[in-house]
Amino acid sequence: MTLIQHRQTIDFIYNPDNxxxxxxxxxxxxxxxxxxxxxxxxxGTTLKHPxxxxxxxxxxxxxxxxxxxxxxxxxxxxxxxxxxxxPIVFNEEEYSIxxxxxxxxxxxTLLEDKYSEFKGLYDEMDASFSSYPSEEExxxxxxxxxxxxxxxxxxxxxxxxxxxxxxxxxxxxQEVQRLRxxxxxxxxxxxxGASSKVLEAFYDNKHPFFEFFKVKRLHGLNKEETIDxxxxxxxxxxxxxIKDIIDTQMGRIEALRRLTGGVIRTIVLLFEIFIDQKQGSxxxxxxxxxxxxxxxxxxxxxxxxxQQQEIVEAIAFAWDAxxxxxxxxxxxxxxxxxxxxxxxxxxxxxxxxxxxxNKNHFYQISERFFNIWYLMRHGRxxxxxxxxxxxxxxxxxxxxxxxxxxxxxxxxxxxAGDYDIRGAYLMSEALASTQSLPTKNxxxxxxxxxxxxxxxxxxYARYLSEPDLKKLEEPIVEYKTANPKNNDSEETDHKEFIxxxxxxxxxxKQYKTLYEYFNHPKAKALHLKDQFKPIWYALMYEMQEExxxxxxxxxxxxxxxxxxxxxxxxxxxxxxx
Length: 577
Known about the structure:
Elements: H1 10-14, H2 21-27, H3 32-43, E1 53-57, H4 64-77, E2 85-89, H5 100-114, H6 121-128, H7 135-153, E3 156-161, H8 164-168, H9 173-185, E4 189-195, E5 213-217, H10 223-236, H11 241-248, H12 250-260, H13 264-275, H14 281-302, H15 306-318, E6 322-323, H16 324-331, H17 335-347, E7 351-354, E8 362-365, H18 368-378, H19 388-397, H20 400-416, H21 421-433, H22 439-455, H23 477-482, H24 494-507, H25 511-518, H26 521-525, H27 528-531, H28 533-542, H29 559-575
Parallel strand pairs: 1-4, 1-5, 2-3, 3-4
Antiparallel strand pairs: 6-8, 7-8
Helix pairs in contact: 3-4, 5-6, 5-7, 10-11, 12-19, 14-18, 15-16, 19-21, 20-21, 20-22, 21-22, 28-29
């Protein structure tokens, strides 16, 4: 992933090729091992014999396009290589390449655009088209023409083709077989392709490309790579506290990595929102990103059968992992059919299965940013679930002091009157929904936000949450009445009061009472589990004998926090014994 030394714009997040060579190289701080291995392979060959071709697979935002560009730039900068090897980088989308001969024509135009010695090659091809009785003969002769020109100039090519699967999927079977033959026997070029989806053809023993390309899969960033990326982000945005967080609070870094699935683009996005000091401009960028991915994700949804579309929605709105029976209840599709559809979606990497100790496994959307897109684009306007991803991020990244500071800054910006309206609503909802924000700050935040939205005649004013934490006390009235010894709390902040009451029940091992409290009708109506989710999962950890799999539902981003709660409860039992 690459960064620039000023505020990152949407084009730089989504189009690495819009950066200068220097900017991209300077910011290339992850995928270094993969880059080195691939470049060593390139540098160690002379193309005197047909060489191995590569396909880089990975979800969108994993850095495939940037990796291809980085390899191309390294070839250009290597004096020994660039004497004879020319890198040709295709656009991320190449809509005109619908037939094999169009591939040769496109190579010709790219050569002409970058290297003067190839001027006129495409015109020569174009002028000869009518001379051939069929497209097949034209394709064959155009490839020979390209090969001849390369030989005359003493050059060979390395083709960096993004979305390679989308290109060859347009070719007919005969053309795919012909391309394989060319790649298998020719020494003029080799291909480094990339794809955001698993190309099943490459694993079909009846397909010409079966086991032909060497596939390199890009997974989410590991802990060390995430640290490298965050350090570079901190440097680019002059956020010195990032190094302190890495040195002293690694749990927050790990929470961010898990929340994003290690997807580079999503980490950058959340980081931008975290450090946004430009009146909601990060939310404008988010909206722009959502607009950019909408055609892609919409296409993904449209390609699914109707039942799978329903199942995806049920899982996406849940955010945390859900069971087959819960999906069945939401979709009204019988469990047997749900299970069959889930197996197919798991194979296609749309969903991820979390194994339990029985057959009742849990399921989540595999790509977290796709889940964010679905919540933001398809959630109802007044539904707090639209920002649950941001709530999780803020809870894991900020302690109470930081949440208060961030809230006060947000309030100050709103009072100044210059703030992105939708961004104001979303950030206020997210901050107000965090577990650690004191009630007085929540009340002020929602009051100022409501005034701001009304002054701007925004319909979001009617959807903004009301402070309702006092109502959360109602479900525990009966328990307090029955246990007067626990009525001595002098807490004035209702959220802190409820939080410390919940801790007391965990310390006192009153698991059944706490379980009933969370499942009280009023608590359910107020989404108590969502507001105090880490404590809920700490309870489920303690009640594994009765509910052995509930603990497994939580997203990986919560694991560190829940373990800290469990450790804190254990220590408090010792302290108060």
